[in-house]
Amino acid sequence: MTATLSAPVTAETTEASKANSLPAVPVTIVTGGLLTVAAIHLMDLPGKEPSYLAWGYIGLIATSILLAAWLAFRPTRIALGAAFIVCAMAIAGFVLSRTTGLPNAMDDIGNWSEHLGIAALAAEAMTMLFAVIALLPGAGNHHSR
Q1: Between 77-99 and 51-73, two packed helices, what is the crossing angle to 10 degrees?
Q2: What are 15-57's pLDDT values in tens digits?
Q3: 0.70 surpassed by pTM
Q4: From CA 140, how far away is CA 20, in angstroms rounded?
Q5: Closest among 28, 38, 29, 37 to 73, alpha carbons compared
C-alpha cells in the first residue's frame, strides 16, 4: 500500500483554489477555438508555397493542438495567454501577407476575401476574445446567493 502526501484541505486552501480557478465555459471555447484554428490551417496546408509558409502552418497547427490539450486537461493562465499570443501572431501573419506581402509570397496581397482566411480570422479573434474573458480578474469566481 502506498501513501500519498498531500496538503490538508482547509478553508484557506479552498478559497485560494477558488480565487485561482478559471471559468469553464470561456476555457472550453478557447480550447475549441484552437482546434478550429488548427483544422482551418490543415485544410489550407496542401500546396502551401514557399516552404517556410508550410512549416509555419505546421508549427501553428501543432502549437494550437498542444495548447488545446493543455487547456483541456490542466487549464492555466499561462496556456490562455499563450493561446492569445499564438492567435495574435496568426492574425499578424495574415494581415502582413495581404498588405506588404511576405518574402517570395506576394500572391496574396489584396486577397482579403479568401474563405479559409476569413474563417481563420474569425476563429482566431474569437479565441483571443474568450482567452481575455477567462483571464479577467474574478472571472472564475461565481458566488451563489
Answers
A1: 160
A2: 444 545 899 999 999 999 999 999 999 999 998 889 999 999 9
A3: yes
A4: 7
A5: 28
